Amino acid sequence: MPVIEISPPFKFLAGIALACAVPAIAACDRQTDAPEQPEASASSDANATESGDDEFNGTLDISTRGQEMPDFVITLPNGTSKKLSDFKGKPLLVNLWATWCGPCVLEMPMLDELAGRYPEKLKVIVVSQDMGGAETVEPWFAEKDFANLEPWMDPNNDLGFSYNTGMLPMTVLYDADGKEVWRMIGGHDWSGARTEAMLADTIS
């Protein structure tokens, strides 16, 4: 029987989509036997949030702290393009998400509120990994009518491959110089007190 080779971008997204079809999953994982995540710096109950919501049990990972941000181009539906390095100058929170990822969607209102909470100290960008591009992302954003977020897209899924976690949502904090501080792998309650503590040193 001939073997059909699937190109890497489709492996990445198709695998995540399949896993996200499972009800009540806490993050969108591209494989069932995901590698164990590096030990986080948080306490033993780091996977629990103040709300106790099982959707928000992401892992805080500091194993790549100090790493330079990948300088890929992201785009808006109107054709605007920027490199991540264009955002240097103040701390940057980069969230990878998709419209079909349940935990991602639950996070978005909280990320929108967070983006408006520290406009002078922190830039928050959400970067879609949807294969449908603007045709999928633009109407979804229009329906939600977020006050502070923009519908950035990653056309070639460069960021997803660079971070190499195989999971959505995926959120990375960079300092003003573009150096990684930490990454949150999986869903997180961005409205809680834990978030304030996680951001404090970087945005102070």
Automatic annotation (TrEMBL):
<keyword id="KW-0201">Cytochrome c-type biogenesis</keyword>
<keyword id="KW-1015">Disulfide bond</keyword>
<dbReference type="GO" id="GO:0030313">
    <property type="term" value="C:cell envelope"/>
</dbReference>
<dbReference type="GO" id="GO:0017004">
    <property type="term" value="P:cytochrome complex assembly"/>
</dbReference>
<protein>
    <submittedName>
        <fullName>Thioredoxin</fullName>
    </submittedName>
</protein>
<feature type="signal peptide">
    <location>
        <begin position="1"/>
        <end position="26"/>
    </location>
</feature>
<dbReference type="Pfam" id="PF08534">
    <property type="entry name" value="Redoxin"/>
</dbReference>
<feature type="domain" description="Thioredoxin">
    <location>
        <begin position="63"/>
        <end position="204"/>
    </location>
</feature>
<dbReference type="InterPro" id="IPR013766">
    <property type="entry name" value="Thioredoxin_domain"/>
</dbReference>
<feature type="compositionally biased region" description="Polar residues">
    <location>
        <begin position="40"/>
        <end position="50"/>
    </location>
</feature>
<dbReference type="InterPro" id="IPR013740">
    <property type="entry name" value="Redoxin"/>
</dbReference>
<dbReference type="GO" id="GO:0015036">
    <property type="term" value="F:disulfide oxidoreductase activity"/>
</dbReference>
<dbReference type="InterPro" id="IPR036249">
    <property type="entry name" value="Thioredoxin-like_sf"/>
</dbReference>
<dbReference type="InterPro" id="IPR017937">
    <property type="entry name" value="Thioredoxin_CS"/>
</dbReference>
<keyword id="KW-0732">Signal</keyword>
<dbReference type="InterPro" id="IPR050553">
    <property type="entry name" value="Thioredoxin_ResA/DsbE_sf"/>
</dbReference>
<keyword id="KW-0676">Redox-active center</keyword>
<feature type="region of interest" description="Disordered">
    <location>
        <begin position="31"/>
        <end position="62"/>
    </location>
</feature>
